Amino acid sequence: MLAPLIGATGSWMTALGVWLMFMVVIVVFGLSMNAVRSRLMPATHLATGVLLAATLTGCAEIAARAWSLQWHQHLGIYSGLIALQCVVLDHSGFFQSAWRDRLRLCVLFGALMVGLGLLRELLGTSGIRLATLAPGGFILLGLLIAAWQAFARPTSSH
Q1: Pairwise CA distance, residues 21 & 146, whole Å
Q2: What is the rounded average pLDDT of the residues 66-81?
Q3: Residue 1 burial (CB < 10 Å; 0-12/13-18/19+)?
Q4: Cβ neighbour number for residue 24 with a 10 Å cutoff
Q5: Average pLDDT over every residue of 126-142
Q6: Which of 72, 69, 63, 58 is nearest to 8 (CA)?
Q7: pLDDT tops 80 at residue 147
Q8: What distance in Å separates the CA atoms of residue 119 and residue 91, rounded to the nearest whole number?
Q9: Which pLDDT value is given to residue 26?
Q10: d(C-alpha 19, C-alpha 41), whole Å
Q11: How confident is the model at residue 155 (pLDDT cuts 50, 70, 90)?
């Protein structure tokens, strides 16, 4: 999930769009795979997941192109990576966990994407051009993770 997190967060609108597309595809993928999982032989599970994820992502891309071609062009290859994320999440058991845990993780991922996109856009318009480029996204994400760890770490009393 790191590639779309860094690549698609150059602006908050692109980040929001990728996250919404991710949510739609992942929900439909999860429901569909749960419906057919018991009917699949173990050897065909991965191939079925790849085919279903690619189909759903392709449909979402066509819908995005029809809805707004300019917005779709900003997405680049990152919307196509949603299919890969679906397969990886399915393989890791994400869709067998409790629905509240799945919802929590998806909302946190979306908040991080939109927040990072907003922060990168604000820094880019204030003159820090590096923030809008991919290396700036990595640097900013690293700084956000470091700040999170600094504030979330329990203080030890000596």
Answers
A1: 29
A2: 75
A3: middle
A4: 16
A5: 86
A6: 72
A7: yes
A8: 32
A9: 94
A10: 32
A11: low
* Helix count and strand count (H, E) for the chain: 7, 0
- Among residues 39, 24, 26, 5, the alpha carbon closest in space to that of 87 is found at 26
Distance CA 27, CA 37 (A): 15
143 to 13, 19, 129, 149, 150: CA distances (angstroms): 22, 22, 17, 10, 10
Per-residue pLDDT band at 18 (split at 50, 70, 90)? confident
Q: Which residue has the tokens 């739609």?
A: 24
How far is 88 from 82, CA to CA, in rounded Å? 10
CA distance 83 to 126: 35
Looking at the predicted structure, is the pLDDT value of residue 63 above 90? no
Domain boundaries in the chain?
A: 2-152
